[in-house]
Specification:
Layout lengths: L9 E2 L3 E5 L5 E9 L2 E5 L9 E9 L2 E13 L13 E9 L3 H15 L15 E2 L2
Parallel strand pairs: 7-8
Antiparallel strand pairs: 1-3, 2-3, 2-5, 3-4, 4-7, 5-6, 6-7
């Protein structure tokens, strides 16, 4: 399979809530980057759907974003822990409210920690929009 990502992802387990209207379903990220996340879950949403996602950087810091489900790997709940990729890949379309600076800071700290410029905001994906 040809790699389509424009930026490097980092393994990172963060609590997330997601849903079509309200972010009410609980899950965790498996990997992250400036332009997308992988949500590990057995309760996937159809590819092409626009979803709302809350990402908890800590208990008191969360970011609300809007994303598009690009692909899913659906498995029965009993197999989620055994499968390498059970869940959905989400392309970030918008970082909502005042979360843009927090998201930038978080991602850039990973790029600095891993000594890479591949996961920065210098050249975001052309379809990624940050709203103030």
């Amino acid at each position: 399979m040809v790699e389509k990502r424009l930026s490097k992802r980092f393994l990172r387990r963060l609590k997330v809530r997601y849903g079509l209207d309200q972010p009410s379903k609980l899950a965790f990220t498996e990997d992250i980057c400036a332009t997308g996340i992988f949500i590990r879950t057995y309760d996937v949403i159809k590819p092409g759907s626009i979803i709302n996602v809350e990402i908890y950087l800590s208990e008191d810091r969360k970011i609300l974003l809007k994303g598009c489900v690009k692909w899913v790997k659906k498995l029965p709940p009993v197999m989620v822990g055994q499968a390498k990729k059970a869940g959905m890949g989400v392309k970030i379309l918008e970082v909502l409210s005042d979360g843009e600076s927090l998201w930038r800071e978080f991602i850039e700290s990973y790029a600095f920690h891993f000594k890479t410029s591949e996961c920065t905001f210098a050249e975001p994906h052309p379809n990624t929009t940050f709203l103030k």
